[in-house]
């Protein structure tokens, strides 16, 4: 896993270069059509926000990109080449890393160990093993600092960090292991205002590092703070697809809240 990802780390990314392109992508689960007609672009050095209510199809979209469930309509291209991923490993090998809301971290393990979890520097015997451990600690510390993440002690259990800090460690980890596309599954959903701000800063840092970021969220305010491109999904279809220049926060919020449906509801409730 490390090698395949790391092999992408050296590749120079050019801002605006398309990393993922979807043309008319759709996905059905038996008779249920979860997504249809999706045209999504993920470009290097940009944040693509995908917004939508429950059941809109956000998770299905993530699953297609991260290799959990292959699409069964349309074309998915990575670096211009059509692909159908049949496992998360394949997606990862293309430099696509997904950070889930319920992070797969081991709470009692030290921060540095979680940083390297599954991708440890190969140890060898004493005294080599000890050297590798020291090196891993140094790297984790260095990489977190590089992204401006302040952890008191790299040896503290990751469970002692806040939810926001844990998201940040996961982002730094993906960047270090050579991710070119970072998919963030509602990274601010369970967080308060301050912690959300911390995470949004690292979303911006990942973009500045040249990655293509897919930011999945319910929250138009969070999306607008970091987004370059906005897609709203509704019942599996694209309800809005605009660049930052083309859409205001107000319009995004109204569209996300249901626009006409909301006006209709407040009419029904007798409120203006
Ligand atoms: N494995 C599955 N089998 C059958 N139907 C599914 C499956 N996964 C999702 N669906 C259906 O596809 C549609 C889109 O679901 P999806 O989970 O992608 O939405 P979502 O936007 O992520 O919602 P939420 O925010 O609630 O997670 C829903 O109607 C859902 O019931």
TrEMBL record:
Which keywords does this chain's UniProt record carry? ATP-binding, Nucleotide-binding
Keyword field contains Transmembrane: no
Source domain of life: Bacteria
Q: A Pfam family name for this chain?
A: ABC_tran
What are the ABC transporter domain coordinates in residue numbering?
20-260
SMART domains assigned: AAA
Q: What CDD domains would the database entry show?
A: ABC_Carb_Monos_I
**Which InterPro entries does the annotation name?**
AAA+_ATPase, ABC_carbohydrate_import_ATPase, ABC_transporter-like_ATP-bd, ABC_transporter-like_CS, P-loop_NTPase
User: Its Gene Ontology molecular function terms?
Assistant: ATP binding
Q: What protein does this entry describe? A: ABC transporter ATP-binding protein
């Amino acid at each position: 896993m490390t090698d395949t990802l790391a092999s992408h780390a050296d590749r120079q990314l050019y801002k605006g270069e398309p990393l993922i392109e979807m043309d008319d992508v759709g996905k059905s689960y038996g008779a249920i059509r979860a997504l249809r007609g999706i045209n999504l672009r993920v470009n290097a050095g940009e944040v693509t926000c995908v917004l939508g209510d429950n059941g809109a199809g956000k998770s299905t979209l993530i699953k297609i990109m991260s290799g959990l469930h292959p699409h069964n309509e349309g074309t998915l291209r990575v670096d211009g080449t059509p692909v159908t991923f049949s496992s998360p490993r394949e997606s990862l090998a293309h430099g696509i890393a997904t950070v889930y809301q319920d992070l797969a971290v081991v709470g009692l393990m030290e921060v540095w160990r979680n940083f390297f979890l599954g991708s440890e520097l190969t140890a060898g015997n004493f005294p080599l093993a000890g050297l590798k451990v020291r090196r891993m600690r140094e790297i984790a510390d260095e990489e977190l600092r590089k992204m401006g993440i302040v952890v008191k002690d790299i040896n503290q259990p990751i469970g002692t960090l806040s939810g926001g800090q844990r998201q940040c460690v996961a982002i730094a980890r993906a960047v270090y292991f050579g991710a070119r596309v970072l998919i963030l599954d509602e990274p601010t959903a369970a967080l308060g205002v301050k912690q959300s701000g911390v995470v949004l800063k690292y979303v911006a840092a990942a973009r500045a590092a040249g990655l293509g970021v897919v930011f999945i969220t319910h929250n138009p305010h969070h999306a607008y703070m970091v987004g370059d491109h906005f897609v709203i999904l509704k019942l599996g279809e694209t309800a809005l697809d605009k660049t930052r220049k083309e859409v205001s926060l107000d319009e995004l919020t109204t569209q996300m809240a249901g626009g006409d449906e909301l006006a209709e509801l407040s009419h029904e409730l007798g409120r203006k």
